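ok trying again, last paste got cut off:
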Amino acid sequence: MPDITSLMQVSEGYVRDVIHAFNERGFDALDPKWSGGRPRVISEQVREHICLIARTVPAEWGEPGHDS
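nice, full thing came through this time. structure:
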C-alpha cells in the first residue's frame, strides 16, 4: 500500500476506502460521480455565449482602443 499512497499522493485510509468500495461495487466504485457544489446560476446557452465572446479579439467587436 505505501507504493499506491506515494504514487497517488493520498492517505492509506483513502486507499482502504477505495478498496472496500471496489470490493462492494466493482468498477463503478472507481468512478464516484462527484456531485455537489452550488447549482449553476446561468444557463448553458448564456455560458456558451460568454465563451464565444471570450475567444474573440476585442477589435472584432469594434471596441475603441482595441485595434489590431
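cool. The mean pLDDT is 83. The first helix runs from residue 2 to 8.
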